[in-house]
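Title: Prediction job returns without error message
Component: structure pipeline
Severity: low
Priority: P3
Assignee: unassigned

Description:
Job completed but the reporter wants confirmation the result is attached to the right record. Sequence as submitted:
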Amino acid sequence: MRLVSIFFLLVLFASCPSQAETYAWQKTEHTLALVSGTNVVWRIVADPAEGKPYFHPLATPGGTLLTDLRPPDHPWHRGLWWSWKFINGLNYWEEDRLTHRSQAATELVAARLQPHDDNSAELSFSINYHPWNAPPVLAEQRTIKVSAPANGAYEMDWTADFTACADVLLARTPLPGEPGGGPSGGYAGLSMRLNPATRSWVFENSEGASGAPALHGKPASWVRFSAGPDAPAVTIFDDSKNLRYPTPWFLRQDMPYFSPALLFAKPLHMGTGEKLHLHYRIFITDHDSQPKTK
């Protein structure tokens, strides 16, 4: 009987590989990806030729794809990414559909993509913003710490430190009622363009509201986009120490798309040498559960 029990335990452990054996890293010159079998959990692309680093594919640990890349309606949308809209009147957001160039440059100066043995990672970037063939007007140091998947979830701590190299005005498309304003005004900053297959999912926020029309332009400490109770979800948290906390949010159900829109209510002026520190947390889960702390 004892030999049978030992044999049973050996078979059990052999059929249940550890979490460390479930995941693997794939790395190229400009990308890093965490994979599980044939599924990509997340991939960061940091190619100087593209300028703006971005995550795509970005999925739950169970394999639900969350992001969309360069959709036909807005080919400058890149999964989970950061872009300013206007800096000193120049457009850093939209790109020419043929050349893929914006009016001004988001220059990826350096990137360090560091995987860890426990399936976590630390990603760091130096980014300059400037008119083409001109010195930087704004510099950024960005660090993103990605936790190892555990219990069907993982999170990203996204920290960005901006320094104005000249007087800068960070602006967005004006809102309705403002000169030149329209219904698509207000967006800039951390953004997530979602997989079209998630269009039936629901937006909810920290204030108890649900549905994109109810959340759009409203301040909240977090917004969640989920397929329902005990189902895949992604939540973005605005840090309480961030400027203009709690931020208004820009949302579109038809894309879908959402963003903690720092500039939604008004532009931001930064004098030469002035600094801006921002921190966000992105929580991704297969089970629509929330982390206990932000």
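Comment from assignee: result matches the submitted record. Residues 1-21 have pLDDT under 50 and may be disordered.
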